[in-house]
Design brief:
With about 675 residues, the protein is α+β, with helices and mostly antiparallel strands. The chain contains 24 helices and 13 strands. Helix 7 packs antiparallel against helix 8, helix 9 runs antiparallel to helix 10 and helix 15 packs antiparallel against helix 17.
Length: about 675
């Protein structure tokens, strides 16, 4: 107890110092073109890349200029451009090119292009709103990759707390229904919450974690490891009937429950750990943190919960109540009766679901943060409607090769998606000695033997047009500067992210299936049963992933990558519980009677676990304003529900149908079930 208290306090103190990373590009594998380009830009040029747009309605041109001067002083806005940088706003705008003016001014307001500091992005945007309010009460709207990230960072902190609080309340209510004492849920939550605090605090040794890991780690740990506590207490309750001495009873309970709890922990642990085989480094981040979390939950349940149960035995007994839920014997008979029909339906759906799950349209980068219907989504749509989609890329190429640079820029300017190209040569600098050029301007466009070429595009991040444009721009640059060009931009990073998905999915799926299959082989000592259990959950995964395809909705790629491992690791427990119960009943009953009894006996545990994971997933999906997290939460919640259905309606038929192969391929033949005397325990 003292050790747990000390470690928990120390871990809680460390949590605020764990940095959260919101940049997907930071998790690209080393050696990708985007990673090399970003490193080269940081190495050579200090000039920030525009990463946001601010649109303000209801301004006069004088007010727009004054607001521009105010925004330049905002801490967190590294650079800013507006119409006055390209024309003399003191002269009539009608004398200038209409397209140039329209790129910065609409009938309703003015556009500012900004480069936001990633550490102060949201604060800078809020200060920009306050400054704009001095001049107009019109709409202020933001859009852009760093804008999306800033909103995500600002909302995730309180959303995590709200999701966690609601999850605890809902889980406590579920546990109250399935427990035999009003005090039991308190002990369950203490044991798991201690493990969660230690897990979050020990992330300080990693230095930082991704925002996906930050939001999902605690909720998933709470949802998937509550089973361990339930099994421990139920086992203690059984042994205490045979052994009056509570410490002796607990010792027996710890020994007896270890097999079931370890089986559940091991499958979840290796399912989560399989994420670390992804070439995309966010998989390593999530895999390590999630696997560490369930390991700490296992340790807490095996070492802390027994002490808590003994210490609080009197409150547990004093607050005992009669079972609230009825017997599930009828439920078992009903499931066994309709299982053959449902099994046929599920098997027929398997192939189409698998094909559909492989053809989902994806979103990869920060644009995937924007949830439809959110304030940020509405603001982004407003800016795009007024000025069109826009994204700024930067090309870095060797300098002083003016002929090649001019030829390359001519090709870039001829591309339909390119609005404008700004470089040293387009500014007329190649004909002027560099000593005569303003050094501030010179260092923005040429430095360290490289030219910095700013390409303003009309693309919307995350669509096929943008990805085709990335390939085309790279091809043009490589033609003039073979293996010496570097392209940086949000869509550029997203394109490179997209190329890792298919290979990563295969690796993660195979790693999860093989590792969990080996654990099941060890647990059941059976050469056939693991195949049935993995198939039961894999079909649920394919059905779950086919739904976005059938609905015609895009799915954030990170959800697609991690859902297979998370679902397989977290919900294969349902099949383990069912299969173990079937094995026990099969020792003394015919197979059809055994499966009916197994369903009835395991229903409460499976339904409790599945309901908790489903509710937690749905809470994440409903509360999170970040589309990445919301979609992942809904996938997890829906996946747990489908896995539970498969466990009750597909698995029973498979166990009965393949009863003979299961019996023949058992490595350890068992006799009749022993009478559970004190010696047997």
């Amino acid at each position: 107890m003292l050790i747990f208290i000390a470690v928990t306090i120390a871990s809680a103190a460390c949590i605020p110092f764990v940095k959260v990373n919101y940049d997907f590009a930071a998790y690209l594998p080393q050696g990708t073109a985007s990673t090399a380009s970003i490193e080269k830009m940081k190495e050579v040029f200090d000039e920030p890349l525009p990463n946001g747009r601010m649109y303000v309605e209801g301004l006069t041109i004088v007010e727009a200029k004054e607001l521009y001067e105010d925004l330049k002083e905002v801490d967190g806005i590294l650079s800013i451009s507006w119409l006055g940088d390209f024309v003399d706003v003191g002269a009539p705008l009608s004398i200038y090119d209409e397209d140039l003016v329209a790129a910065w001014k609409s009938d309703n307001g003015f556009l500012y292009q900004i480069a936001l500091d990633e550490t102060l992005d949201f604060e800078a945007m809020e200060q920009g709103r306050e400054l704009a309010a001095k001049y107009t009460d019109g709409q202020v709207a933001y859009s852009g990759t760093q804008v999306n990230t800033g909103f995500a960072k600002n909302s995730s902190g309180w959303e995590v707390k709200l999701i966690m609080l609601m999850a605890i309340v809902v889980i406590a209510l579920i546990l109250l229904l399935t427990s035999s004492s009003w005090f039991e849920p308190v002990l369950f939550l203490i044991a798991i919450l201690v493990a969660i605090v230690i897990n979050l605090g020990t992330n300080i040794f990693k230095g930082e974690i991704s925002f996906v890991t930050q939001i999902c780690a605690a909720i998933l740990q709470l949802a998937v490891s509550m089973d361990y506590a339930i099994v421990m207490l139920n086992t203690y309750r059984e042994t205490h009937k045979l052994f009056p001495d509570r410490e002796e009873a607990m010792t027996k309970a710890m020994s007896k429950s270890l097999d079931v709890i370890f089986s559940s922990f091991a499958t979840t642990f290796f399912g989560f750990l399989s994420l670390s085989v992804m070439s995309l480094l966010i998989g390593w981040d999530m895999g390590i943190v999630l696997a560490k979390g369930v390991m700490l939950s296992f340790i807490s349940v095996m070492l802390l919960l027994p002490v808590l149960i003994i210490i609080f035995e009197k409150p547990i007994a004093r607050l005992a109540h009669k079972p609230i839920l009825p017997s599930f014997a009828k439920f078992g008979r009903a499931c066994a009766k309709i299982s053959p029909v449902m099994a046929i339906i599920v098997v027929l759906l398997t192939a189409p679901a698998f094909i559909a799950s492989q053809n989902i349209p994806f979103v990869y980068g920060a644009s995937g943060f924007v949830e439809k219907g959110s304030t940020l989504y509405d603001e982004t749509m407003l800016v795009n409607e007024e000025f069109g989609a826009n994204e700024t890329w930067v090309l870095i190429v060797p300098s002083n090769q003016w002929a090649d640079e001019k030829a390359m820029i001519a090709e870039l300017e001829g591309m339909p998606i390119v609005d404008q190209v700004i470089s040293y040569t387009t500014s007329g600098g190649d004909g002027v000695p560099t000593a005569m050029v303003d050094q501030g301007t010179l260092e923005q466009l040429m430095k360290g033997g490289y030219s910095r070429i700013v390409v303003s595009t009309k693309v919307v991040t995350e669509n096929q047009v943008a990805f085709d444009a990335v390939r085309d721009v790279r091809a043009i640059a490589d033609k003039h500067y073979p293996e010496e060009s570097y392209l940086v931009g949000a869509s550029v990073s997203s394109y490179d992210l997209s190329t890792t998905v298919s290979s990563d999915m295969l690796k993660v799926t195979l790693a999860a299936i093989l590792s969990i299959g080996l654990v099941l082989l060890f647990v059941f000592r059976n050469g056939f049963l693991p195949l049935i259990l993995v198939f039961t959950i894999e079909t649920a995964i394919w059905i779950n992933l086919s739904i976005p395809y059938l609905a015609g909705t895009e799915l954030q790629y990170i959800g697609y990558l991690v859902i297979s491992s998370i679902m397989l690791g977290a919900t294969v427990d349902y099949t383990i519980i069912m299969a173990k119960s079937y094995e026990e009943q099969r020792e003394s009953l015919p197979k059809r009677e055994a499966i009916r009894a197994a369903i009835g006996n395991s229903a409460v545990t499976i339904l409790t676990s599945a309901t908790i994971l489903t509710v937690c997933g749905v809470l994440i999906g409903l509360i999170s304003s970040n589309a990445v997290i919301a979609s992942l939460g809904m996938l997890i919640g829906r996946g747990a529900f489908i896995s539970a259905i498969n466990t009750f309606l597909l698995l029973p038929t498979l166990l009965v149908l393949f009863d003979k192969p299961i019996q023949k391929l058992s490595f350890k033949r068992k006799g009749k079930k022993a009478i559970q005397t004190g010696e047997a325990l």
